[in-house]
Amino acid sequence: MSNIHAKTDVILIGAGIMSATLGTLLKELAPEWEIKVFEKLANAGEESSNEWNNAGTGHAALCELNYTPEKSDGSVDISKAIKINEQFQLSKQFWSYLVNSNLIRNPQDFIMPIPHMSFVQGEKNVLFLKKRFEALSKNPLFQGMEFSDDPEKLKEWVPLIMEGRTSNEPIAATKIDSGTDVNFGALTRLLFDHLKRQNVEINYKHRVQDIKRARDGSWEVKVHDIDRGKIEYHTAKFVFIGGGGGSLPLLQKTGIPESKHIGGFPVSGLFMVCNNPEVVAKHHAKVYGKAKVGAPPMSVPHLDTRYIDNKKSLLFGPFAGFSPKFLKTGSNFDLIRSVKPNNVLTMLAAGVKEMALTKYLIQQLMLSNEQRMEELREFVPNAKSEDWSIVVAGQRVQVIKDTEAGGKGTLQFGTEVISSADGSVAALLGASPGASTAVHVMLEVLEKCFPQHMKKWEPKIKEMIPSYGVSLAQNPELFQEIHTLTARTLGLEGKQTSESEKTLQLQEA
Ligand SMILES: Cc1cc2nc3c(=O)[nH]c(=O)nc-3n(C[C@H](O)[C@H](O)[C@H](O)COP(=O)(O)OP(=O)(O)OC[C@H]3O[C@@H](n4cnc5c(N)ncnc54)[C@H](O)[C@@H]3O)c2cc1C
């Protein structure tokens, strides 16, 4: 039964990229604070942050068409793309700081340069892509982006996608070489290794069951030590709920007013993977297409070169689907258990509004392997079934809440930090743009929860992240400087110049 009653400064729930980033930031800003981590699985980075559970795209809006919607007057709105690009610049600066400070030794263990491309078919889409290119390429953040609708050029850029293409439909692509493939699983593990060296107590196979406010305003966290079958109680002045899809049920347990009227909509995912070296060698890019009509933004199809375990492979997908689980390792009762008296109307309203989406997800779930191959062949006309296998990706729990613009039960596709008024507890909900913007999101947690420390912390934050609080889009010179420095530190300069890339090429030869 219950044994331990222990006090600490900070408790981080979950060992994914978000807790890893927050813990690392806090150890730099307040090294004397005692931090404990509780993770229900046996290792760090095993859920959505794992390299096989997400697409590993360093989302900087270089290729994702859903970040640049077309307005009713036909112009392209690039404001979201600028925002996401700026957020990714924060991540690159923080990661560079970690490399320069020797907290992470080899950046190629988690980040690789890879061109980011958008690829479209059909006259209307080609026109849209051209307008998008014209709008973005004027902005310093997107410098170096190229556009082509010339099939010969496209054969150079994406031979695998062009091989066997017989249709006369107009096609076009944009390409920018400063894109990245990020192994968020490896990064999460590297950060937890670092936190362990900093004496952070990391408790694996410890599932948080409950969170309650203690009399003195701190939080009491009830933890199940899975191996020993014991219950422990730990109190902390600050708790971060970084449980990924598991965050919503934990947030609900806090009972804070900010946790009410919020629901979660789980979306599952599948990828197709190719390890045939001949096929893999013909593709070197992350190529994002346009989402099908009715498809949610997180199921935009893309064909990606991935670097995992020092091996190059290709990933296609994701195929979205419906599953009531909030985590890949979750329970089929997660969704139903998350329905509470305070959110039942919000959830019901979303259920009615999102009938089409639910239908789409169920249809996706029912696809046969051959039907999935047909979708892949829209990208890779010569794709052979024997070269591609299925991997089950992570779960994404989208936030449902009542908004002024969307009304009751509106499905949100972004990430959201929910915190108590006194800043003693915060949770991260939602999954997009996700891990790429972990640094921006965790800075938001610091600003919301530790306003009293921000003045003191600001010089250190600026040392780690020089553009903190400054718009890079409006400061092209600063952007140029930061872009050059981070590219050098993270080994992202030029094409295929990194040592790991050379090793891979040698292995492939
Ligand atoms: C299919 C897919 C594709 C994606 N593609 C990209 C991409 O290309 N680029 C990108 O930037 N992002 C992408 N994302 C999003 C990204 O993976 C997530 O935003 C990110 O990994 C979330 O990190 P996290 O730390 O919040 O959660 P997780 O990595 O899920 O970690 C949460 C941890 O909390 C633990 N936990 C949960 N409940 C409890 C509990 N009660 N007690 C103890 N531990 C608990 C879990 O076991 C888990 O280890 C993708 C996600 C999916 C699913």
UniProtKB/TrEMBL annotation:
Domain of life: Bacteria
Coiled-coil intervals, chain numbering: none
EC number: 1.1.5.4
Reactions mediated catalytically: (S)-malate + a quinone = a quinol + oxaloacetate
Keyword Zinc in annotation: no
Cofactor: FAD
Pathway info: Carbohydrate metabolism; tricarboxylic acid cycle; oxaloacetate from (S)-malate (quinone route): step 1/1
GO molecular function: L-malate dehydrogenase (quinone) activity
UniProt KW 4Fe-4S keyword: no
HAMAP family: MQO (MF_00212)
Name by which UniProt lists this protein: Probable malate:quinone oxidoreductase
Source organism per UniProt: Paenibacillus thermoaerophilus
Lineage: Bacteria, Bacillati, Bacillota, Bacilli, Bacillales
